[in-house]
Amino acid sequence: MSRILNGIVAVCPNLGIGKDGKLPWHPIRLSNEFAHFRKMTATPSVAGKTNVVIMGRKTWFSIPEKNRPLKGRINIVLSREYKVPPAGAHYLAADFSSALTLVDTELAEQADQVWVIGGSSLYKVIFFLLCLKVFSTLVHYIIFIFFFRFPGVPKELQEENGIQYKFEVYENI
Ligand SMILES: NC(=O)c1ccc[n+]([C@@H]2O[C@H](COP(=O)([O-])OP(=O)(O)OC[C@H]3O[C@@H](n4cnc5c(N)ncnc54)[C@H](OP(=O)(O)O)[C@@H]3O)[C@@H](O)[C@H]2O)c1
């Protein structure tokens, strides 16, 4: 079965995505940006189905424990070392292709959109090889990159707690 893979990432102007296991702008909290992440990843396109989020083991542990698993989404964690899912995660996969196989077999009936939510090695896969749509937040100043308008994603410059950012959507067509 063919599915669209979606990627979502918030990046600094230097394309950094994390620092010391946290987001680069930690401890500043960008509530609206989190809300955007939640809305994009948790809203299924088909009523009654549930979106899937796929993430690396370090991204899983970078999520505060009280927020794990990410609500309303099927959480798949990738690890080569773990033999069982970390506490709270729904599924464990030993590699990216096993995660996609899981989605297309055991989860086929219930799964809707598939979102890759980090970290860096997964973004490499999704950005350069597989991604059909990437929803990104460019934190800080405006960066001049082509972008594609997507319904429901604000195009205006955003500002929270002194940090400016823009939502950008890229589509591999
Ligand atoms: N800015 C953003 O939008 C964003 C999004 C997500 C995360 N982050 C940040 O990114 C950082 C975490 O990302 P990270 O790049 O350091 O780590 P990560 O990719 O989340 O996790 C790396 C680990 O995931 C497992 N893994 C990754 N690719 C795999 C594959 N293809 N097959 C099997 N296992 C795989 C391995 O786990 P094992 O070692 O257990 O084998 C690997 O050590 C944190 O600072 C977090 O805050 C930022």
TrEMBL record:
Matching SUPFAM superfamilies: Dihydrofolate reductase-like (SSF53597)
Question: Broadest EC class?
Answer: oxidoreductase
Task: Look up keyword Oxidoreductase and say if it applies.
Answer: yes
**Keywords of this protein's UniProt record, alphabetized?**
Membrane, NADP, Oxidoreductase, Transmembrane, Transmembrane helix
Which molecular function GO terms apply here?
Answer: dihydrofolate reductase activity; NADP binding
Q: Does the keyword Transmembrane helix apply?
A: yes
Assigned GO CC terms: mitochondrion
Give any single GO term for biological process. Answer: folic acid metabolic process
**Domain DHFR positions:** 4-173
> Annotated pathway, please?
Cofactor biosynthesis; tetrahydrofolate biosynthesis; 5,6,7,8-tetrahydrofolate from 7,8-dihydrofolate: step 1/1
- Enzyme Commission number, as recorded: 1.5.1.3
Recorded catalytic reaction(s): these are: (6S)-5,6,7,8-tetrahydrofolate + NADP(+) = 7,8-dihydrofolate + NADPH + H(+)
Highest rank taxon of the organism: Eukaryota
Checking Pfam families in the record gives: DHFR_1
Q: Where are the transmembrane segments?
A: 125-148
Family annotation (PANTHER family) = DIHYDROFOLATE REDUCTASE
The entry sums up its family as follows: Belongs to the dihydrofolate reductase family.
Which protein is depicted? dihydrofolate reductase
Q: Which organism is it from?
A: Poecilia mexicana
Recall the taxonomic lineage recorded for the source organism.
Eukaryota, Metazoa, Chordata, Craniata, Vertebrata
